[in-house]
Amino acid sequence: MNQALWGIDLGGTKVEGVILESIDSAVPLVRTRVDTEAPKGYEHILGQIAKLVKEMEQQSGLKPRAIGMGTPGVIDPTLQTLKNSNTTVLNGRPLQKDLVELLKLPIILANDANCFALAEAHWGAARQKAPDAQMVFGIIMGTGVGGGIVMDGKIWNGRHGIAGEWGHNFLDESGGPCYCGKTGCVETVISGPATERYSAGLTGERIKLKEIVARYNAGSDPAATKTIDRLCHFFGKGVSVITNMLDPDVIIVGGGVGNIDALYSKGLDALRQFIFNNGAEIPLLKPILGDSAGVFGAAALAKPA
Fold first, then answer.
1. Best exposed site among 11, 18, 67, 283 by fewest CB in 10 Å?
2. Mean pLDDT for the stretch of residues 166-180
3. Is the model's pLDDT at 238 over the cut of 70?
C-alpha cells in the first residue's frame, strides 16, 4: 500500500480525512472525520488534525509518507502564512510549517476550490467528459464564489497564490459591498445569499434559493423568473472574463448554486454573448464526485512526483 494517498479537507465545522488506494484507483480505504471546533482556537484545530491522522492510522494500519490538505484560504507565497480564510483564526498563521512540525511529515496545502478542480480533473467530470483536457477551471458557487485552475493535471497557484479567485473580480455595482473591501464582486452578485437578497428586494419575502428555483421551474412566479434570469446573465458575464483570459478546455460548476439547470442553458447563452469569440464550444459541466471532491483532491496533492 505504498501508493496509498492521504488527504484531509479542513473545513469550518469538520475535518475530513481519506486514504485512497492510489492515483489510478480512487477507492477509499478509510474515510473518517472529526469536528473542527474552530471557536476553541488555532492550537485546538491543530490538535484535531493530529487526532484525525491518528484515527486514520489506527483504522488502516498504515503510516502516511505525506498528506495533502485542502484549506479555506491560501498560503501566502512570501509570508508562508494562511490568508483569505473564512475560518479567521487560521489567517496569519504558519499552518503548513506548524503541521509539519506537529506530524513530522511532508504536508502539501492547497485551497479547497483547487482541490475540487483537481479531483474532478483526475477522477470526475473532466476525466469522463473531456479526458484530453489540458486546462480545467473548477467553479464553486454556494455561500461564496471561488475557483481553481488545473493545468496538465497540476494546480496552478499563481504568483500570489490566488489564481482562480474569480469570485472577487468586479462584476456589477448592484452587488454592493463585499467583505473583501471592494464593491460589486462576482460573489456579491451570483452567490446563493446574493441571489436570495435580490429576490427579497423584488418581493419583500425572504425565501431560500431552492424555493426560488422551484418557483422558477413552475413558471408561475415573475419574481423568481427575473431572479434566475439575472443569475444566468451575470454568471455568463462573469465566466466570460475567465474564458477570455484562460480559454479553458472545460469548466466544472460545483456548489449549491451550480445545481441550477438554467445555468447550463441560459447561462451558457450569456457566456456566448459576452465571450470574445463567435461561439462558446467549451463544455460546461456539473461535477460528479459530490462532497467527495474536496477530500479526494486533497489526497491527489500527495501523489509522488
1. 283
2. 94
3. yes
